[in-house]
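Structure tokens please, single chain.
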Amino acid sequence: MSKLRIGLLGAARIATPFIAGAKLSSRAEVVAVASRDPARAKAFADTHGVPHALTYEQLLAAKEIDAVYIALPNSLHAHWSMAAARAGKHVLCEKPLALSEAEAIEMFSAADAAGVVLLEGYPFLFQPQTLEIERLIQAGEIGRVQTIFATCGFTLSNPDDFRLDPTMGGGALLDVGCYPVSLIRQLAGARPTRVTATAQWHGGVDRTLAATLEFASGTIAQLSCSFASGLVRTAVIAGSEGIIETDYGNHTIRSAAPSFGLRRGSDWRRPTERIAVPREDGFRLEIDAFAAMIDGSDRDQQAARRAASIDIAWILETILARARVASS
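Here you go.
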């Protein structure tokens, strides 16, 4: 079977680990990169060994490209994902897929009309530790999930960074808070029935935000995200019969022996086990899953990811709306 030929729409920093993951894949390869700045595209291509440096329009028109990876600011995801779909390209779009539920539905409708696959990029969801955590929860190893607490953040010191620009879809929630939101949605398997949120605002964007999500199952999830503190990507899933602790957010596992914590039973004094998982590159796994969706060998996961992405878009939109009301 021939490899899936991927073109990068955008030469952002996130494209570098994506290329590294693609090089580990037996199912895909990066064959082109596009930028609004031709010199930047060429420099990026030369640095990373990508054969072709193109404009956006050239990349979408190229018959030698099967799929596009969207690595652009959040506000541009919908436009270029739909443009790529209409050009007959499968689309792997960086998170967050959309800025609203309506936008996400429109994007999937465009992909359906063109007969192509659209996937939102969350590499950690494909990694062994996430899959094993899901398996343990579904097997009842920690009982009924009572609470989920997840964080993600870092200190963003550059005042001119586009992630602080409200017109570019900036803000802590959309940039880093989408990670805990996606994890919570993955574990809960549904959108929440009640959302509350509060935020510290700076220049029209949320710089620090906290939210509580309540689910019909009875699970209560809390998340926090920030551009003003170095919140590590951690999650604690507490059930009636045990607790799981994990650094869920790694795309590329840096540890030589990755693992997560599991404490069985309701007695907090019981020791925490370390559950070892295989060391895998999240981008490689995501790219392989994307290729499987395209060749039709994993339609179930394609449908599940689509439903999750629409729910995530609604959750993000709702959290921001609640946070604005709370701050008014």
